[in-house]
Design goal:
Layout (H helix, E strand, L loop, with lengths): L2 H5 L20 H6 L8 E2 L7 E2 L2 E2 L2 H13 L2 H18 L6 E4 L4 H7 L3 H13 L7 E3 L12 H8 L3 E3 L3 H5 L3 E9 L3 H12 L4 E9 L1
Parallel strand pairs: 2-8, 3-8, 4-7, 7-8
Antiparallel strand pairs: 1-2, 5-6
The structure holds zinc ion.
Length: 213
């Protein structure tokens, strides 16, 4: 056993139990119980051609994502990145050129101290061997979309909420961008971000999230 594994024994990314097999990152019980999306991994949307998500946002997957916030173990991040990478390879018929993520507003970032979508994007980019770029910024604070009912209203709520980072246009010109978020619900947020990326020169946008509702 490597010294790293003695210091940081591998734990299941979802329940935190110690793993007997260090090559796995999910325990057998969780692997069996997780709400996998399987053949329903793909969500179609406006402005992005497809969004893939390996898990449904419920039960163990929801707990794992919420727990990620507190534990913030890098091993869990790697595991989530691997799950998303497999989904991207199997379900998207596109080779992306770079990875980016849905940003948090400054207010929320300061409150929370970290961006979950950035951590997931970083892990996914590492798995796929693609560069990670910060292309988008939140320019207006929005109410959590979970409190807004109806797709039209959600779309209206995020309209104009995002802006482009300095230098983003050169980075994504004629490129296929893989846009990452933690959860997709109606796709309003991913749609608005994709619209912006396409408007400013991206050739195509595909999306990946860990979970879908
Ligand atoms: Zn487990």
């Amino acid at each position: 056993m490597k010294i790293f594994q003695l210091l940081y024994p591998p734990k299941c990314a979802f329940c935190g139990q110690l793993l007997e097999n260090a090559a796995e990152d999910i325990c057998p019980a969780c692997r069996a119980a997780l709400p996998w999306t399987g053949t329903r991994a793909v969500t179609r949307g406006s402005f992005f051609s497809a969004c893939v998500s390996p898990l449904y946002y419920r039960d163990l997957a929801r707990q794992g994502l919420l727990g990620f916030k507190f534990r913030r173990r890098s091993s869990a991040g790697r595991c989530f990145g691997r799950l998303m990478a497999r989904c991207v390879r199997e379900q998207l018929q596109t080779e992306a050129d770079l990875v980016t993520y849905v940003p948090l507003s400054f207010l929320r970032l300061r409150k929370r101290g970290y961006s979950q979508s950035r951590l997931l994007a970083k892990a996914l980019a590492a798995e796929l061997g693609l560069p990670l770029a910060k292309l988008l910024r939140k320019q207006r604070h929005t109410k959590p979309l979970s409190r807004i009912r109806g797709e039209e209203r959600r779309r209206a709520a995020v309209s104009g909420a995002f802006g482009l980072c300095r230098g983003a246009e050169e980075q994504m010109k004629d490129k296929c961008v893989l846009l990452v978020d933690d959860v997709i619900t109606t796709g309003a947020t991913l749609g608005e971000c994709s619209r912006l990326l396409l408007t400013f020169g991206a050739d195509r946008v595909v999306c990946a999230t860990l979970c879908k509702k």
